[in-house]
Write a structure and sequence with these properties.
about 500 residues; alpha/beta; Rossmann fold; Luciferase, domain 3; GMP Synthetase, Chain A, domain 3; nine-stranded mixed beta sheet
Length: about 500
């Protein structure tokens, strides 16, 4: 099976059933309509000579057209390159060029960014904008018998280097993770569920966990294109949402709404949190204010994404990410690659059918990501006697802001573009709403003057908003190792 067949199966059995409803305007899309629109996308790509083995980008917010493009690209035999709509033009250009994308589907303000970026990339031949959706035509594409081992999604993540890397996820990888999640007892998605889809579809959580489970189970989803706490709560109530998928920032926002307990979320039977750690306080407040129990999980883009879930047990264990999903094997290892003793911290390494094939055109980084066939997550965890995993640290310096990866060197390089900056170091600091925030320590050139606000504004020209420092501290010098490398660890203490 391939991912495109999921939609065909749902449309053949539930063509009239509503698949998506846009919270902002009430637009409804049935599985039959979703199938027809995906066919139009596949036909338009085929007419342009784009198909099996090609890469096609999607740069859209959460609107039905994202799903049309996603399944249409897969149906054409091509691979999807999801674009974070918060990226700047240079960042978008880098991804289009690295992926060798031949076309892109886009919408909204980010559509202008995609179009400008595509103009600098020779491989991009076509831009399909939502505003000109009618121009796609109604051409029917021949059915492509895509194999499970073929590339389905090329998802870019900063990972452990400053440059974004393309994570190669096959149809088999993504389908395996859907299968693993649907095997979770009692708390899996069913046909009768109404899912909350506010997490961005360009993020692997929104793409495979929510959209994937929606179509695999012929369920229904409420699409939210711009998350705002109060309108989101109203949408949950008005549309009878039964399953909440969210990031910690969303749950933190809801429990902070004045009079939050006036919103009746009694139809919500399951809450799932991922992308970043959820505080125990927010976990408790969701239960007290709304009567909603939140089950945390853990995963990475490289694992399609889910590896662990508290849903594997009847009672979630606060502070833990739960137990591994079926078919996931893991070890906790020390610096020498040996298994650690129970209760001792170790790097989490995993195997499973959902683990990615490697990084696009980066054989050395792919090799470095594995040890004896085990994928190195870069996260450090502790296992208790009952088999629950607790994440305690990250070996890498990755910063996670609202579930999005930010690598310090990328931000440092942006700051160093300012001629007034002699040296810069970036670390993550705790933040009540986004989980972590980016803080920069800057040493100015001799005689130069610049305020933190000026330095932040300058960095914003080349970085997505979530990557920009929220705090800049101008210092006289930075701590260094004997090799000259900045000791970020000292800045975090």
């Amino acid at each position: 099976m391939n991912l495109a067949e999921l939609l065909s199966n749902a449309a053949s059995s539930d063509a009239a059933k509503i698949a998506l409803i846009q919270a902002s305007d009430g637009t409804e899309v049935s599985f039959g309509e979703l199938e027809r629109e995906a066919d139009r996308v596949a036909g338009a790509l085929a007419a342009a000579g784009i198909g099996r083995g090609d890469r096609v980008a999607i740069g859209m917010h959460n609107i039905p057209h994202f799903a049309f493009a996603y399944f249409g690209i897969l149906r054409a035999g091509a691979a999807v390159v999801p674009l974070n709509i918060m990226l700047t033009e240079p960042e978008t250009t880098a991804i289009l060029r690295d992926s060798g994308a031949r076309a892109a589907f886009c919408a909204g303000l980010y559509g202008h960014v995609v179009a400008a970026a595509a103009g600098a990339v020779e491989t991009v031949e076509r831009i399909f904008n939502v505003e000109g959706w009618a121009d796609l035509g109604d051409q029917q594409a021949s059915k492509i018998e895509t194999q499970g081992v073929e590339l389905a999604v090329l998802a870019y993540t900063s990972g452990t280097t400053g440059e974004p890397k393309g994570v190669m996820l096959t149809h088999d990888n993504l389908l395996a993770n859907l299968r693993q999640q649907m095997a979770i007892p009692e708390t899996h998605v069913t046909r009768d569920d109404v899912l909350f889809l506010a997490l961005p579809l360009f993020h692997i959580f929104g793409l495979n966990v929510i959209l994937g489970l929606l179509v695999a189970n012929a369920a229904k989803a409420v699409l939210v294109d711009r998350f705002e706490p109060v309108p989101a709560l109203r949408a949950i109530v008005d549309h009878g949402v039964t399953v909440l998928f969210g990031a910690p920032t969303m749950y933190a926002a809801w429990v902070s709404v004045p009079g939050a307990d006036q919103y009746d979320l009694s139809r919500v039977r399951l809450g799932v949190s991922g992308a970043a750690p959820l505080s125990l306080e927010v976990l408790r407040d969701m239960q007290v204010l709304f009567g909603v129990r939140i089950y945390e999980g853990y995963g990475l883009t490289e694992t399609s994404p889910t590896l662990w879930s508290n849903r594997m047990e009847d009672e979630p264990r606060p502070g833990s990410v739960g137990k591994p999903l079926p078919e996931v094997s893991f070890r906790l290892i020390d610096e020498q690659g040996n298994d650690v003793e129970l209760g001792d911290p170790g790097e989490v390494v995993v195997k499973g059918p959902n683990v990615f094939e490697g990084y696009w055109n980066r054989p050395q980084e792919t090799e470095n990501a594995f040890i004896d066939g085990w994928f190195r997550t870069g996260d450090v965890g502790v296992l208790d006697e009952e088999g629950f995993l607790y994440l305690v640290d990250r070996k890498r310096d990755l910063i996670i802001v609202s579930g999005f990866n930010v690598f310090p060197s990328e931000v440092e390089n942006a700051l160093l573009q300012n001629p007034k900056v002699a040296e810069a170091a970036v670390v993550g600091v705790p933040h009540a709403y986004t989980g972590e925030a980016v803080k920069a320590y800057v040493v100015l050139e001799a005689g130069a003057e610049a305020t933190p606000a000026e330095l932040i504004a300058d960095a914003q020209r080349g970085l997505a908003r979530f990557k920009c420092p929220s705090v800049v501290e101008v210092v006289a010098d930075l701590p260094h190792l004997v090799t000259g490398k900045v000791l970020r660890r000292a800045l975090r203490t």
